[in-house]
Structures are given as structure tokens and as C-alpha cells.
């Protein structure tokens, strides 16, 4: 008992001495004590002696986090990156990239049918789901290896672990329990699918995270949602031959897009054979003969092999313990940041979907690069989030850039307003930059209310979507317009998104 008391006193004294010797005092001048687990010998160990240190610790290995890590390291910073899953994040591993591969696969059936009109004879075609999934996995593995190699090339240390805040400057690696002390921390954890309100049988619904791993192509699928993800997957499965029902609670799909585009796309989906139920929502899911019986309010139950909920995404901050670092979050969990991606705690930054600004991969990459330039390159750089173009890979592609005419920044008036604002001696040159280019380089004035010209000579079918599925339009220069001018901001995604220049192919 006496020896135990002596050890307790000795350990307490050692803790105080270590803390004072390193000057670790809190705001009131008291000693800040760190957790010191007991070794097998019974003595305590000061973890800070072996604590790793870094100029920058990035939490999250997605597109924004990887870009920030690489650029910061190129400036000479000592960088560590923690990612609990796979390097590449949502876009590369279970988002944009595999989605595009599935989109390409879904369009070949139409291409095979169309080829006959151009002199081709195509016989004996068939689709193999397992082959598509296997080749998708190979491509994702290749891209992940490339992302990892790029980090290695600039000596970024990456660890496979979830990370959370221990305090304002210290992060805990959950896989090992190790603490890392960083001068700067970048939160780049992205977003996570939101399951929606709880309903009976919700455990049977899958999210976009699991949709790429089906063992076989479902004969039928119910997709709930009306945004990018829901519409894109509805088109993918319809193109591959599944019977698809799209359920959306709003009056029309794609809230935030231009009204003409929404109406056009809905008609194209239905013409493709997709059943679109607006003003409805799934109320229950029960197992039924190897599939599911899906209850939908105001409609008869639907029997389907799979049920996909695509109801949006939420910032992935739940396990970060941001409160320990004093980082403030907005409603829904988004990290509050300023125009330089600085959070409410000095030295802690955030980029990408976790901030819920413009939730698009290229935007996250730009934010990550700007952060590194600002903090490590001595080049303060703020990202302009106004007028960000966006595209959706549906049956007929929807695009946007600028502002919705219903919000005062009308497309028809934008060009006239621009005409009035341009100095006479610069008019022609500036007006030429505010235009849309089609695939063959023809220009159309900004604000033109018409379909873009079709690509391909001799195409005479009734529906423009068939003619020109692969035509792309690009906006050369963004135009800010609105009742209040530049202060009227547009979003690339989200419930309050405004569509900017509207076009479809």
C-alpha cells in the first residue's frame, strides 16, 4: 500500500513537471494534463514525447483533401493525410467515376439500335452485369493507385484510419489511438447519403454507396428522390433494361433547375419508359417473394427487386468531435468557414462537401488548392462560388450556369443588360466572350432561349434527345445577374440551387 501511494505521488509530480517544462498552460494559467496510459510495468508513459507532428493534417482522402495535401507538400510542408476507407473519396470510389462508367454502359443499347440507320449491322448483342462491375472495380483500383502514387511522390504520409479531434491542435487516429499534433488541420471528409425520415422497412433500402455492388442487374427498381443522383440512376437502370419507377415528393423533378429543362427532362424520362410519380413518397418496404413490396402514398404498392433512396447527402462531420476543437457547424452539420475556408477555430480549415457550399468535385479540388496556396504558398486565394456550371447525366442531359430567370436574373434579359453595361469601345470583344459554344464551335448569344444546334448531318428524328445525347455545351465566362446584381448568388447543387444558363441535348 505504501509503495502504491508513493507511485501515485511520483506520477502526479512527473505529470506536473513535464507540463511545466513544455509550457502547456491553459488560459487561466493552470496545467493542462494529457492522458498518459499505464504501461505493462505499471509506470505511466508521456504520449506527447512520441506524438507525431505535422505542418498539416488532412482528414479525408477525397479529391479536395488529396489536392490540398499535394499542393501543401509541394510548398515544403510536412503533411499527413488520414483516410479510413480508400484514397480517392466519394467521387472516385463510389460516385462520379463509377457512375459515368455505368452511364456509358446504359447508352449502348440505344447506340446499337441507332447504328442501323447509319449502315451498320449489329447482331447478337447482350449485356453482362458481372463484367461491367468487374471492369468498374479494375478502373477504380487503377485510379486509387494513381491518387496514392501522387501522394507518395511528394512525400505525403497517408494512414488508413478514421480521425477525430482531441483538442484544437491535436487529432486522434482511431485505428491506433495515436495522437498527431498539427499546426494546421484541414477537414475534407465530404458528405454521406441521407436516408430520409424513418419508415417501416427502411433497412431494406440501399443508398448510392451500395448501388455499384449489386450481384446482378435488378429486373425492377424503385428510386426515391428527384435530384441528380436519383434521376441519373433511374436513367442508368432503364438503359440497361430494368423496369424503373421514380418517386418524388415534389411537384416536378430536379428542383432548382430551370423550369423548361425540368419539364423537358421529365417528358424524356417517361418516353424512355421510366414511370415518374411526383407528389408522392415511399411509406413502407416489406419483403415479398424474393423482392420488396413498396408502399407509396396515393398510389398502388409497387413490387420491385431493389429500392434505392437518393434523398440527398449530409456533411460527414458526426464522428469528428468538432466541439472539442471549438469548431462551429451550421444546421445539418456543415463546417462554418469564411471565404478562405478558415473555420471558427484558428488553424482549422475545411473544403468540399463538408462545408455545403457548392457540392461538386471540381469545386472541392479548387478549394483545396486555394487553401494550400493561402496557408503554405503565401498567396491568399478565395474561391468564387458564383455562377458555377453543372451537368446531369440523364436520358437528355441537363446543364446549368448563371441564374434562373424566375429570380430576376432572367436569361432573356441577361444579354440585354450586358449590352447596356459594356463600354462602347470594348463592346464587341466582351460580348463575344459571353456566349455559348456548341460542339462544332458555333456561338449562341448568352441568354438564347432555344435548343443548341444538333451535331451530326442527316439526323431527322423527332426528339432532340435522341439526336444529340452526346453534345456538350460549355460556358466560356460566367455572368452574374439578378435583381441585386452580383450579390444574387447561384448554387451548383442543393435545395436552393438556381439554374444559370439552361440547355439540353
Short descriptors:
alpha/beta; disordered C terminus; 7-stranded mixed sheet; 505 residues; 4-stranded parallel sheet; 22 strands; disordered N terminus; globular
Q: Mind describing the biggest β-sheet? A: 7 strands, mixed
Number of helices: 11
Which blocks of ≥5 consecutive residues have pLDDT under 50?
1-45, 404-505
User: Overall mean pLDDT score?
Assistant: 76
* Secondary structure: number of strands: 22
Seen as an oligomer or otherwise, the chain set is single chain
In short:
By secondary structure, the protein is an alpha/beta fold.
Give an overview in words:
Strands 1, 2, 3, 4, 5, 6 and 16 form a 7-stranded mixed β-sheet that branches. The chain is built from 11 helices and 22 strands. Strand 11 (282-288) and strand 12 form a beta hairpin. The chain is globular. With 505 residues, it is of the alpha/beta class. The longest helix has 25 residues, at 129-153.
Give the arrangement of secondary structure elements.
Elements: H1 2-21, E1 52-59, H2 63-74, E2 79-82, H3 89-94, H4 96-115, H5 129-153, E3 157-159, E4 163-165, E5 170-173, E6 178-187, E7 191-193, E8 220-224, H6 228-239, E9 243-248, H7 259-271, E10 275-278, E11 282-288, E12 291-296, E13 299-304, E14 306-309, E15 313-315, E16 348-350, H8 361-376, E17 390-392, E18 398-400, H9 411-421, H10 427-433, E19 435-437, E20 443-445, H11 464-467, E21 474-475, E22 503-504
Parallel strand pairs: 1-2, 1-6, 2-3, 6-16, 8-9, 8-14, 9-10
Antiparallel strand pairs: 4-5, 5-6, 7-15, 11-12, 12-13, 17-18, 18-22, 19-20, 19-21
Helix pairs in contact: 2-8, 4-5, 4-6
Amino acid at each position: 500500500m505504501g509503495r502504491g501511494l508513493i507511485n501515485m505521488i511520483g506520477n502526479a509530480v512527473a505529470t506536473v513537471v513535464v507540463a511545466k517544462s513544455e509550457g502547456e498552460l491553459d488560459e487561466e494559467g493552470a496545467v493542462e494534463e494529457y492522458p498518459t496510459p499505464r504501461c505493462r510495468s505499471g509506470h505511466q508513459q508521456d504520449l506527447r514525447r512520441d506524438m507525431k507532428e505535422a505542418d498539416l493534417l488532412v482528414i479525408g482522402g477525397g479529391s479536395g483533401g488529396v489536392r490540398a495535401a499535394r499542393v501543401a507538400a509541394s510548398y515544403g510542408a510536412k503533411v499527413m493525410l488520414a483516410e479510413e476507407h480508400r484514397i480517392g473519396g466519394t467521387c472516385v470510389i463510389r460516385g462520379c467515376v463509377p457512375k459515368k462508367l455505368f452511364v456509358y454502359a446504359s447508352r449502348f443499347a440505344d447506340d446499337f439500335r441507332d447504328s442501323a440507320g447509319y449502315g451498320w449491322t449489329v447482331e447478337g448483342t447482350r449485356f453482362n452485369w458481372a463484367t461491367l462491375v468487374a471492369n468498374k472495380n479494375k478502373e477504380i483500383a487503377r485510379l486509387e493507385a494513381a491518387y496514392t502514387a501522387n501522394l507518395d511522390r511528394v512525400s505525403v504520409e497517408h494512414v488508413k484510419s478514421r480521425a477525430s479531434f482531441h483538442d484544437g491542435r491535436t487529432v486522434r487516429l482511431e485505428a491506433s489511438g495515436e495522437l498527431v499534433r498539427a499546426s494546421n488541420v484541414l477537414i475534407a471528409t465530404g458528405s454521406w447519403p441521407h436516408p430520409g425520415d424513418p419508415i417501416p422497412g427502411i433497412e431494406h433500402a440501399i443508398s448510392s454507396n451500395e448501388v455499384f455492388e449489386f450481384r446482378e442487374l435488378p429486373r425492377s427498381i424503385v428510386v426515391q428522390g428527384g435530384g441528380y443522383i436519383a434521376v441519373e440512376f433511374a436513367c442508368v437502370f432503364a438503359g440497361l433494361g430494368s423496369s424503373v419507377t421514380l418517386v418524388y415528393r415534389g411537384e416536378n423533378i430536379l428542383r432548382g433547375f430551370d423550369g423548361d429543362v425540368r419539364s423537358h427532362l421529365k417528358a424524356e424520362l417517361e418516353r424512355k419508359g421510366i414511370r415518374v410519380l411526383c407528389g408522392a413518397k415511399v411509406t413502407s418496404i416489406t419483403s415479398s417473394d424474393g423482392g420488396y413490396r413498396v408502399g407509396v402514398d396515393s398510389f398502388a404498392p409497387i413490387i420491385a427487386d431493389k429500392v434505392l433512396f437518393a434523398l440527398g447527402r449530409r456533411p460527414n462531420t458526426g464522428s469528428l468531435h468538432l466541439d472539442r476543437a471549438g469548431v462551429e457547424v451550421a444546421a445539418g452539420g456543415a463546417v462554418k468557414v469564411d471565404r478562405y475556408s478558415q473555420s471558427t477555430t484558428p488553424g482549422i480549415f475545411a473544403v468540399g462537401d463538408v462545408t455545403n457550399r457548392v457540392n461538386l468535385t471540381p469545386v472541392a479540388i479548387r478549394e483545396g488548392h486555394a487553401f494550400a496556396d493561402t496557408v503554405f504558398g503565401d498567396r491568399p486565394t478565395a474561391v468564387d462560388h458564383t455562377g458555377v456550371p453543372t451537368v446531369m447525366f440523364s436520358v437528355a442531359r441537363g446543364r446549368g450556369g448563371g441564374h434562373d430567370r424566375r429570380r430576376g436574373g432572367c436569361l432573356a434579359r441577361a444579354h440585354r443588360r450586358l449590352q447596356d453595361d459594356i463600354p462602347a469601345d470594348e463592346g464587341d470583344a466582351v460580348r463575344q466572350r459571353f456566349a455559348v459554344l456548341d460542339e462544332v464551335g458555333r456561338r449562341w448569344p448568352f441568354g438564347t432561349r432555344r435548343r443548341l444546334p444538333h451535331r451530326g448531318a442527316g439526323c431527322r428524328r423527332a426528339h432532340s434527345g435522341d439526336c444529340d445525347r452526346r453534345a456538350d455545351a460549355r460556358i466560356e465566362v460566367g455572368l452574374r445577374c439578378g435583381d441585386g446584381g452580383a450579390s444574387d448568388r447561384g448554387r451548383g447543387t442543393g435545395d436552393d440551387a438556381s439554374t444559370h444558363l439552361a440547355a439540353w441535348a
